[in-house]
Description:
7 strands; 261 residues; alpha/beta
Amino acid sequence: MAQTMGRVAGKKAFITGAAQGLGAAAARKLAAEGAKVALADINVDGAKAVAAQINAAHGAGTAFAYALDVTQEDQWVAALEAAAADMGGISVLVNNAGVAGDKPLEQMEFDLWKRIMSINVDSVFLGAKHALTHMRGHQPGSIVNISSIAGLIANHNSPAYNASKAGVWLLSKNIALYCAKLGLDIRSNSIHPTFIDTPILDPLSQRLGKEEAHAKLGRQIPLGHIGEPDDIANAVLYLASDESKFMTGAELKLDGGISAM
């Protein structure tokens, strides 16, 4: 099946954490709107499976898969180089990979703190640092960083998640200003979801049952329900497209109204 024209036709997107959840949804959405997509994940078999589904839907050569531990700089360099070769460049970076799993402050082991910070924040630094090498030759470009509403609003029991997602938020602005100062047509923005129906909710669903878990979380949201992966994928699509060409250093809150309270 031939690649169809769409809102991101001709774009070449590199997406982390793409084996499932928000990353997989973003990859599918971008591919459906005309982009080539590189799916990177530590779970490379999962990334390959999603890439195969995308290629079946949109034609061979639309999607590619790569092994990537986002905390390892050498793996970033290798995966980006391979993706640029396979897609003919990189114009969009979606830093989506992330984890939760906090403990309250006094119960938090330092190693757990460092692991969450490394996966959630170091990955954005490494991704932007090394993706810019490839994006310079494929402007206009866009860096989309998945933060969280927890990066803007704190709670009492997620010190590393709060701190790491706040770090993603401000780092996104730094990257935006850095690129603008250099005269690059490469934008950087962050997305801040609330609870979304992805595997990150599995621990709560396993404890309470999926229906009750989603209802419990939904009661915290003014709109009364949690979000769907496509709610975030649609925002990724907008930020990756030239429709958002005047938007940089900004944040999109997709939180069902939580931050309005």
